[in-house]
């Protein structure tokens, strides 16, 4: 635990580079890096006209040696954004806000995928249209804010896609 004061100073320095790298991350095709946090393959599904909500999926990778946690998110496209999980209750799958956030272990990943954990846009201010992008800011406990542009892509995340299992 002696390393903590040192890590705290480091994380303050990293906060500045997070913003800078996140701007670079908006360039299409470049990996979305924010310090040790990398956002891979983010996508949203197009919403039905008039639908109040939309879900966003991605793979979060933590290349660092300190565990991190996705604790929140925000977007100008929605009145409110929450971190959600699917929980089985009495044989029924329900969505619930994960107030403690989603853990991303050091050197590990956390997958947000259909039927599992996801970022929920609530009170959509605009329709999510296939081919367009949604701006999203992810808030991490250690890495701070990570801004990404999420493509709305109905062709991704199909259940038929192999998961390697
Ligand atoms: Cu949800």
Description:
There is one protein chain. The chain is mainly beta. The chain has one domain (4-151): PCu(A)C copper chaperone (Immunoglobulin-like, Sandwich), CATH 2.60.40.1890. The protein contains one helix and eleven strands, in the order H-E-E-E-E-E-E-E-E-E-E-E. The protein has one helix at residues 4-25, and strands at residues 32-34, 37-44, 53-62, 68-74, 78-89, 92-97, 102-104, 109-112, 118-124, 133-140, 144-151. Strands 1, 2, 3, 5, 6, 8 and 9 form a seven-stranded antiparallel β-sheet that branches. A four-stranded antiparallel β-sheet has the order 7-4-10-11. The chain is globular, with a radius of gyration of 16 Å. The N and C termini lie far apart (38 Å). The model is unreliable at 1-31 and 160-165 (pLDDT under 50). It binds copper (II) ion. Copper (II) ion binds next to strand 9.
**Beta-strand content:** over 45%
Q: Structurally, how many domains make up the residues?
A: 1
- How confident overall, as mean pLDDT? 81
Helix count, DSSP H or I runs of 4 or more residues: 1
- Please count the beta strands (DSSP E, at least 2 residues each): 11
Helices and strands, in order, run as: HEEEEEEEEEEE
SSE blueprint and pairings:
Layout: H1 4-25, E1 32-34, E2 37-44, E3 53-62, E4 68-74, E5 78-89, E6 92-97, E7 102-104, E8 109-112, E9 118-124, E10 133-140, E11 144-151
Antiparallel strand pairs: 1-2, 2-3, 3-8, 3-9, 4-7, 4-10, 5-6, 5-9, 10-11
Copper (II) ion (CU) is lined by residues 55, 84, 95, 118, 120.
